[in-house]
Amino acid sequence: MTTRAKMELKGFDAYLEQIQQAGLDIDAAAQRALAAGGEILHAEMDRLVPIEFGDLQKYIVIDGPFQDGNVSYVDVGVVDAPAEIAVYGNVQEYGSPSKHIKPQSYIRAAIDHKWAAVKKAIRASLKAEGFVE
Amino acid sequence: MTTIFELTNNALATLSPSVPFAMDDLIGELPDTYITYFLITGVGAEHADNIETARTYRVQVNIMNKSGLVSLPDVDTAMAAAGFKKGPERELPKDSTTSHYGLAKDYFYLM
Fold first, then answer.
1. B81–chain A nearest CA distance, Å
2. Whose CB among A18, A50, A78, B55 lies 3.0–4.6 Å from A89's, allowing a Cys bridge?
3. The whole model's pTM is what?
C-alpha cells in the first residue's frame, strides 16, 4: 500500500538534451533538480498531513534521488512506515466511505497545489548549472 | 455560476439505473451499492494580468459495492458527459464491518 509521489524528469527532455550536449554529467544535474523539486513537495505534504499524534508525519520523507538505467527519480511521501501507519496514511489520503471517514488529502493535494512550483524549482536548478536558458 | 458540486451532483444523477449518492458521506444504513464524492482540490490553472481565469478541480468519487468491483455503475460515462476528465483510480480496502468493496476514482474539471 503506497502513499507517495514519484517524480521523474519527463517533460524536461529539451533541458536535459542541452546539458548532455554540453558534455556535462546529466545524471548529477537531473538528481540535483529532482531533489530541489522534492523539497517543495515534501514541505507541502508536511503542511497538509493531518496531525493527531504526529506518527504519520514522521514517515513523510524524500527518498532518493535514485537512478534506474537512464531514468532519475525521487519518491516523496510515506516511505518505510510500519504497516499500521501505512494503512492510517492511506485512509487519511483516500478516506473510508463505509466508515464515514472523509479524505484529508496530503499527497494528491500537495501535488495539485505545488506542481507548478516543483517544475519551476527543477528548471531553476537546471539553469543554475548554467547551460539552459 | 455553476459550482463543481452542482456539476458532480448533476452528473451522478444521470446514472441509470440510479444509485444512491451523497457529497462527503451517506448517512444512515448503507445500501449494497452507493456513491460518495469529495472535492480534493481546486487550484488556479490559468492567469492573465494577475487574475485567475481558470481553475482545475479534482473530485474523488467513491463507488462502494458489497458484491465486489466487477460490475459497477458506469460513472466514467456520466462524468465524461458532464465534461470531467478521468484521473487516477485505486481500490479501497474492503470494509470488514460492512463488507463493502470500494473503488476511488479521481476526475478533473477545468472551469
1. 24
2. A78
3. 0.88
In Å, how far are A99, A108, B30, B60, B101 from A125, measured between CA atoms? 44, 24, 51, 34, 44
> Would you call A90 an interface residue with chain B, using a CB distance cutoff of 8 Å?
yes
Written as nine digits, the cell of B82 is 458532464
Query: Which CATH class for the B4-110 domain?
Result: alpha beta
**Are the beta carbons of A103 and B38 separated by less than 8 Å?**
yes
Q: Which residues are CB-neighbours of A115 under 8 A, at least 6 positions away?
A: none
3-class state of residue A53 by DSSP: coil
A5-62 residue pLDDT tens: 877 766 666 666 666 666 667 788 888 999 999 999 999 999 999 998 889 999 999 9
A interface test, pick of B19, B27, B92, B96 with most A CB neighbours within 10 Å: B92
| Residue to test with chain B: of A45, A47, A92, A94, most B Cβ within 10 A | A94
In order along its 111 residues, chain B shows pLDDT tens digits of: 899 999 999 999 999 999 999 999 998 899 999 999 999 999 999 999 999 999 999 999 999 999 999 999 999 999 999 999 999 999 999 999 999 999 999 999 999
CB pairs under 8 A between A and B: 54
